[in-house]
């Protein structure tokens, strides 16, 4: 494994961070707006398949981000109390766990439904599981709960960034924002 230790994140890490941030926020809104579309209507099926398709793309980007993160160490932590460093590590680990579990549970749930996934409403990915309402319900509920948990963790993440910018006035945000000129 190759590790870099710089003061800024790599260009790839920055692009993946902000791309996933925008896509996840959009997908949260998309998922919550789906409740407004009446069940058992053609329109709902079309939009659900769009949500599933985008979720698959986001899931692949998350795998890419994790792969990149495992191969490239982040910059050294800024000076802060040990409890804050531990809290940051725990919250990042929890966000990564949610980012894996949320699309995975959505994908698995789709495979325990007779509907499966119609990729961008063009290519049908036939479900490989049985049409099992209980398994579907458990996986779908896991998907929804994980989405809420990830949204809360993102909120905490944003509050921590605000604290670093407004109170500590350190370079935490600059390392993920202006670091686009960094190598890689």
Automatic annotation (TrEMBL):
Report how it sits in the membrane: Multi-pass membrane protein
Offer a single GO CC term for the protein: plasma membrane
Instruction: Report keywords, A-Z.
Output: Cell membrane, Electron transport, Heme, Iron, Membrane, Metal-binding, Transmembrane, Transmembrane helix, Transport
Q: Does the keyword Ion transport apply?
A: no
Would the keyword Cell inner membrane turn up in this protein's UniProt record?
no
Residue ranges of every copy of the Cytochrome b561 bacterial/Ni-hydrogenase domain listed in the record: 9-179
What processes in GO biological process is this protein linked to?
respiratory electron transport chain
Top-rank taxon: Bacteria
Q: Which residues cross the membrane?
A: 12-33, 53-70, 90-109, 145-166
For activity, the cofactor(s) needed are:
heme b
Family per similarity comment: Belongs to the cytochrome b561 family.
Mind telling me what this protein is named? Cytochrome b
The protein's organism comes out as Massilia eurypsychrophila
